[in-house]
Amino acid sequence: MTTTETSAAPTPVIADREQVFIGGRWVDSTGDEWIDLVDSFSEQKVARIRSATTEDVARAVAAARESFDKGEWASRTMAQRADVLDMIADRLAQRVDELTPIGVVEVGVPISVSRPTQEMTGGLFRATAAFARDFETREDRTRADGGITRILKEPTGVVAAIIPWNGPIGTIAFKVAPALAAGCSVVLKTAPEAPVSPSVFADIIGELVEEGHIPEGVVSVLCADREVSETLVTNPDVDHITFTGSTAAGRRIMSLAGERIARVSLELGGKSAAIILDDADINHVLQSLPMGGCLQSGQACIALTRVLVSRKRHDEVLEALKVAYGSLPMGDPWDPGNFLGPLAMERQRERVESYIEIAKEEGATIALGGGRPAGYDHGFFVEQTLIDGVRPDMRIAQEEVFGPVISIITFEDEDDAVAIANNSVYGLSGAVYTEDLDHGFEVAQRIRTGTISVNTSTMDFTLPFGGYKQSGLGREGGIEGLEEFFETKAVHMPATAQ
Predict the structure, then answer these.
(1) In this predicted structure, what is the pLDDT of residue 498?
(2) In 143-293, where do the E strands start and end?
(3) What is the model's pTM?
């Protein structure tokens, strides 16, 4: 197991946030509760963020409702709103040096991983701006009786955007960028475990409000616990809830929203399979699969955590994977040479360790890792772990672990591989490895998942992304992600008098 023990940089000084951000302004909260940010490497508290109250949430929704109903933002053209998205992208780019260390502290990713993540966020705003400029919000269709029906695309209204802790700044782009492009007003609810990077985004919005580019009331950014957050979901003035997080939380949100038939978009969990077909060149597999399974130390819904290999190639592939996964450098996240850092929080490490124990109890064996790396008496680390002898029905093969834990599952033939890949309540991502790309495409079509790659684990988030089954509803990214924030209206008119 490759680990490094150097300390490349101290934990950054992060300012406390004493106010809440409502309607484009930092204002006093109605309560006095705080949320602590704990550095996942030092395990020390490094900042405090003001926790929003139910009254704060109600104020934010009221501001969003008023701003949307006034129509100042929604009445602007798509091109005008796209120009503001580009402004946001510019200012995010200017703050990359500020956001990069925050990403290390919040999520645990090494600094070399955090920086491109922050840089990607501005690119997602720019991509949405480009889609918005080409988006048609009106189309005339001639009916059989000679009349005209005008098809209008109108913003969904007040949007509650609820984001997770494992990718806070990126998921802001997935949700807030298209919502603003469509003309919606947004209440952004951030995760208590990663509250700081969204507050930097709030600063950007505050600047644009002050300069007159965004009307007051259009954007609020609040951090709150689950109980307070549920008042956002149940508020009758919220028209559309877009959520990224666990399937359990998504199920709860959908249930609450269903009571009043509110619109819901969900990006939820995954248990993605990578099928290594018998003709696959193992060297090609090793170029992407280990990173695809362990990105962000496995704290990613798209992680390829089930590796499917035929019985006849099992031993060969397992030995190669042990070397490849074991060579991923893990350690001090401030060292740019590391690819893996600690998990984001102590409870997450405990969760991952419990799943490793469950797998052993159910008869699987640890082929690599399985514990904490040597040399660290602090940091929420779990070694990259390969678990062999996994049956498709084991919990380790069925439930999302959210850590660097990979299940090795054998199949008899291609049909069996497809069946195992589809034997999941999830359907978010996946991969097929083969030297025959056309055949790989055919196999990919048989997998019930929203995104799948052939001979790579790389994804382009400017293209549509989302899941089948319990991995969610709707899509983010691409023109499809923008379409999520529009309602369709048909206006029927008679034929023009001759």
Answers:
(1) 39
(2) 148-155, 158-162, 185-190, 219-223, 240-244, 263-267, 272-276
(3) 0.95
